[in-house]
Amino acid sequence: MDSCFVSRHELWTEQQQGAAEELASRIRRLDLSQVRLSWADQHGTLRGKTLETAHFLKALRHGKDFQTAPLLFDTSGDLVVPLSGASSLGGPRIAGLPNAVLVPDPATFTPLPWLPATGWILGDLYFRSGERVPFDTRGILRAQLDGLAGAGYEYVAGIELEFYITRTRPLRPSGPGPDGALSPFPGPPRPAHGPGTAALSEDELETVVHALRDGIVSLELPLATVEEEWGPGQVELTFEPLAGMTAADTVMLVRSTVRQLCRRHGYHATFMSRPQLDDVVPSGWHLHQSLRNGTQGNCFAGKAGQLLSDTGSWFMGGLLEHANACAVLTTPTLNGYKRYRSGSFAPDRIAWAEENRDVLIRVAGGHEGPHTRLENRVGDPAANPYLYLASQIISGRDGLRTRKDPGPPARTPRPHDARPLPKTLEEALPHFEQSALLRAELGDAFVDYLATIKRHEIDRFHRATTDWEQREYFDAY
């Protein structure tokens, strides 16, 4: 590794430079033995390496070599194209899948209290030339936040994440043997408890939820509420408002924390929107958002009886205008589209209203209030947080540029005259690929890249035999 990599290319901001100095001292003071260096891939899945402390302190300054092969993976880890065809997705820079450089962001470091002497940190992916890899989704959000900052705005997000906790069945013996070895693979998950069950089952869920609460608070994350939701074993976490990049980083850390802690307590947590469970109520990710600046404060707050300021109205107009184009970014899984159905508190039409939980955009926070915000209720809890937030900023900035009128609010819970959202990922893809705005903001290379990955995922789904098909046709024909 070139020892001058980071400093030569000036990849850190001045604030990050200062944070790196403090971090090196803090790691020594905490006497950590290892640090998990993580990177969020195109799906919002964490990948990375665990580094011994001395090696991490070198990587903190000079970056850590990191393979680019995960850029070709779909959600299952299946290669979208053969390794020899990498250049067809990423151009000549990806040909041969050369090592890139993972550069830690010192502002994201946190010790992991449930692991001995272990820290965690996020990184950004760069080519050795110092150019950011164009498929690095954290970099995509950074570019959008910088664009907003250039116009004098800061993006603020409030996170509401829903997920299911299931109990893993006892491990089964792997076969005869003197040591009675157990299989490392748990049996199928089942709900931790269900409606109307005994209080003991509810206590059981509360035990693991309490462990999650303690774990998240120990990370010094601004947890606001922990609630048991409608589905059996369904939980919702909400957080105090956070600035853009911090909000996305928090989602990555929270999802990883929830899954780690559940596993350590004998449970499995899934952010899959509609798992195959009895009495399931789909999980969503409601994203509350606003803009602020140093002098005006909340830029969405209306005046003199207005529900929203012009800034808030135009931003919302952009969200509505580009909702279909951004569906691949807000709802990137095939399963996520099964949430959009009647009675699910999920939108299926592009409309807005005040305090209406069936529409796409809900205006919340009150007239002229400092907490005025737009709640987008479309999100899949499995979405890549950097792409989800970036899609909102791209759409909202376009609404500000064009002064997009959002039109009148919906007068009924599900207005039939409003444009429908895509019903499937397959239906959403053409909207994404044909969006001139997304191609201008994300680049043709990224749009074509992500569309190729998602089309591969769809093709794999169509080739598979589903449980429904087996039940429907196996005995009938």
Describe the 3D structure.
It is a single chain. This protein has 477 residues and is α+β, with helices and mostly antiparallel strands. The protein folds into two domains: 5-135, Roll (Ubiquitin-like (UB roll)); 146-172 and 185-463, Creatine Kinase, Chain A, domain 2. 35% of the residues lie in helices and 19% in strands. It is built from 14 helices and 17 strands. It has helices spanning 5-9, 14-30, 53-62, 86-90, 137-150, 199-218, 244-264, 310-321, 327-330, 385-402, 425-433, 436-442, 444-463, 467-473, and strands at 34-40, 46-52, 64-66, 100-104, 110-111, 118-126, 154-167, 190-191, 223-228, 234-239, 242-243, 267-270, 285-293, 297-298, 352-354, 361-364, 373-379. The strands form two sheets. Strands 7, 8, 9, 10, 11, 12, 13, 14, 15, 16 and 17 form an eleven-stranded mixed beta sheet that branches. Helix 11 runs antiparallel to helix 13 (444-463). The protein is globular, with a radius of gyration of 23 Å. Mean pLDDT is 87; it is low at 1-9 and 171-200.
